[in-house]
Amino acid sequence: MKKYQVVGIGNALVDVLTEVEDAFLVENNIEKGIMQLVDMEQAVALYSKVGPSKEISGGSAANTIAGIAQLGGKTAYVGKVKNDQLGEIFAHDLRAQGAVYETPMASKDVDVETGRCLVLITPDGERSMNTYLGVTEHLSPADIDEAMMADTEWIYLEGYRFDGPESHEAFDKAIKACKNADGKVSITLSDPFCISRHREAFRDMIRDHVDLLFCNRAEMLSMYETEDFEAALAQAAKEIGIVACTDSANGAHILSGDQRWHAAAVPTDIKDATGAGDLFAGGFLWGLTHGYDLETCGRMGNIAASEVISHVGARPETDLKELFKQHNIL
Amino acid sequence: MKKYQVVGIGNALVDVLTEVEDAFLVENNIEKGIMQLVDMEQAVALYSKVGPSKEISGGSAANTIAGIAQLGGKTAYVGKVKNDQLGEIFAHDLRAQGAVYETPMASKDVDVETGRCLVLITPDGERSMNTYLGVTEHLSPADIDEAMMADTEWIYLEGYRFDGPESHEAFDKAIKACKNADGKVSITLSDPFCISRHREAFRDMIRDHVDLLFCNRAEMLSMYETEDFEAALAQAAKEIGIVACTDSANGAHILSGDQRWHAAAVPTDIKDATGAGDLFAGGFLWGLTHGYDLETCGRMGNIAASEVISHVGARPETDLKELFKQHNIL
User: Fold this and answer.
1) Structure ipTM
2) A53 touches chain B (CB under 8 A)
3) What would the 3-class secondary structure string for A220-256 be?
């Protein structure tokens, strides 16, 4: 029996959430619904233009791990923060949720700060993200504890983490340690633009190592450079053991070998779409590591995603197990 | 015509909001519904025991000023933060709301941090506050800009600010500069325990300088050391030009000389009581400085308070003027 069910690796970020009108996105050349990287200067300039904000721990894989932990899963997270106030907040929130988080903090002397993501929420609930990676960009192979990677059933890799000088090497080290101990590898593609920045690396990794792929429709199309969704799904299913592809209000498609399932979306009043994909993966992975069939895993993912978009902030605020019970799948 | 309608002076804090069960308060000897001061060590110990949190700018008078600013009032705030991440967040949120905030930040070399308030929200929506004052305790007379105090119709003093070595002197300086320029002085009593720590100073200040008193029932009783609410109200009305005393679900009592009004509470689903009194004062002061009668000011206060307790966080998230219109008082 392994110590962990899922260990996630990603960008450790604190979200700075604020509401804006659509016109603000246009005026500031921000593409709606995606993540764009900004440097500290751009981050400060943009922050000075937005209204009052809230700070809530985020980071894509960290949100997923928080969801699994809230469900009672045995889980850990690897991602870099600095020993500053936002770093302390990030570490507290993850541990307080029940996840193990032991990545060494960068010291106060480092000249970059803990990363943050300025999340602009438009009236339709869509989020447009401006990420200052800060110290989290510098996650290095030294931060990967091979014993931890060997002691987990699954690792969960965040696509965004491909943006970093030593990140591919860090991922390789994690994958090797995990696979050598008969662990499995899951990955989320994170964002269509992130894919276009690293398409070859993604494709190689997926073909060679990935057992479970999380993505949404736009990412799937970007990955296989096609407009034909069905063709892309078919191709992915050929290359990967399990494919879980979300398609917003159309629900999620789960493929494994020749089999395919559809899990309907769970309707809700969308307040803030941040974290939808992250919590889909969280619910799905919890189900998978607790013996549920893939269709049920998809439903669990949809329920968890639905919870997180019903409020501002990308981590669950309602007992997810209770929600699973209300939907009669527990 | 003065530059400002209201200038507030108070403890500059970032709120750390988290949900707990009532049993947690009992186990940790935390008295429900009040504010208690903690040192950094106690703050860290308590923080390590609570679940995931959200960080939202707070501070009692700062919430009031944010409310007035959101309504379009000309307003400024005086309170001390450090040049650290939480200090930047506090400053951003207040300025982004439209308030002037020019208090010099304490430098990075100072060995205390920006103050914060750990707000424990129980299922009934009540909040119990644990405040680490940090650098905000050290607001000194040097931070009081006499020209600003002379250029405002009202100053608004936060009772909590009495907890600080040089605070009484700072308040004296502000009052003198304000009164010498025919400005008026309002104060909030903040908390029954805060009053018991400084009763004589409060009583002297009120008798000698205060034109408008904000308080709630418990504070009024503590102030005059009686259990007789009506007697306390009568005594206050004798000493102070305007008394605005809130009484939770019973609404607010407004007294001025021989006149008295009652403004009914505005019912809402209470999510987080933090900021109710602050926003009552904000709505009231905006009304008062925009020519409304005292009864209408009380109603505006109740509407603003009702908005802020309907969500987590102590600053308004809905357009308060729109709410006033919906209630047919604009």
Assistant:
1) 0.95
2) yes
3) HHHHCCCCCHHHHHHHHHHHCCEEEEECHHHCEEEEE
